[in-house]
Design a protein that fits this description.
Elements (H helix, E strand, L loop, with lengths): L4 E3 L2 E2 H20 L3 H8 L4 H29 L3 H19 L4 H28 L6 H29 L4 H7 L1 H10 L25 H14 L6 H9 L4 H29 L1 H21 L6 H24 L7 H29 L4 H26 L11
Antiparallel strand pairs: 1-2
Helix pairs in contact: 1-4, 1-6, 1-8, 3-5, 3-14, 4-5, 4-7, 4-8, 5-14, 6-11, 6-13, 9-14, 9-15, 11-12, 11-13, 12-13, 12-15, 14-15
Protein name: Permeases of the major facilitator superfamily
InterPro entries: MFS (IPR011701), MFS_dom (IPR020846), MFS_trans_sf (IPR036259)
Pfam families: MFS_1
Amino acid sequence: MGDKRFKLGLTKNVWIMGVVSLLNDLSSEIVYPLVPIFLTSILGAPASVVGLIEGIADASANFFMAISGFVSDKVQKRKPFIVTGYGLSTASKFILSVSFGWPMVLFSRITNRLGKGIRTTARDALIIESTEKTDRGRAFGFHRTLDNVGAILGPILSIVLLKALMGNYRLVFFWAFVPSAIAMLLLFFLTEKKKSSLDLKGMHFEWKKANVSFKLFLLISFIFAIGNSSNAFMILRAQNLGLSVSLTMLVYVLMNVSSSLFSIPAGILADRIGAKRVLSFGFLLFSYVYLMFGMADSSGVVWFLFPAYGLFLALTEGVGKAYLSRLIPHEIAGSAFGLYQVVIGTATFLASFIAGLMWTDISPAAPFIFGSVMAFSAAGLFYLLNRWIKVHPQSQPIPLKR
């Protein structure tokens, strides 16, 4: 049962988490698009190192999502994990500001992503617990929209700061700390109902008893994610095609504008026509965008591809969580989301690592062609999954062992 609605048909917790995500993403997006450029242009690291750093960082986040999800289910508390996670992400900006070699950048990225890993599953579970089932697409879409507002403002501020600070990347990273600190203060206004701890000996997620739909969705997600390398490679590709640092940042802003504009409509559309249709189109769109990134021979096409990729994000990120939430009982939402993140984390590490090697050893186009093929394969399998669900409507959510 969701809490009392506040504004726009959403609860107070959903609003707070949205604003916090806005501020945190503002901070992170001041930093993130500059990191691959900082690594390659200032520190002289090759693309393979960028892939290694992004792969390890993202995998760390996803693995910790599983741990925090399981523990938050056990103690039935979400807020401590959310606060700790955002705290680590805030600290990572300072670490990055004193980095003088790629190992320190790696440490900063791991710290940042650990923070994301600790908070994300608990945050998603809290959103589920704070909303009615029929409103979850809207709630996740709203959260994603505010997240993207921060993502729009962040790169713009990054351009301004980089110019004002005369190209001093480290000072830009230091100033990114401020909005994160403000976000931390807002977290103390979150509320959650007092719940007794679950006895996981009597009630827990069991893989053997998980419904087939959930298992197949994990497989499809893995196949897709192994081709979805870090966005850092799109940034490097834009520069590889001839864009300046400022124009690269600007086209990155357009991607986030597109994602922000379409997030809530995508969530509402998913609630009305079904998340499966929205996700299917998203997978196919990704395949097309990555194919075009691979085939591009001039910088002009990136002005279309980045916004198109933003549309893909809107169609899949919030909607994907809403789709997954319908396959699981809310009592173990944290653990189930956590398992999902382990699968994604494993694939994400491989995706960025493979992309870095392909970029260095084959060509800058190779990672995108590979990603396009994997996404198209995932789209086909997702279609077959939903055909199977239609034929087997008796498929139930993951059972609880009692």
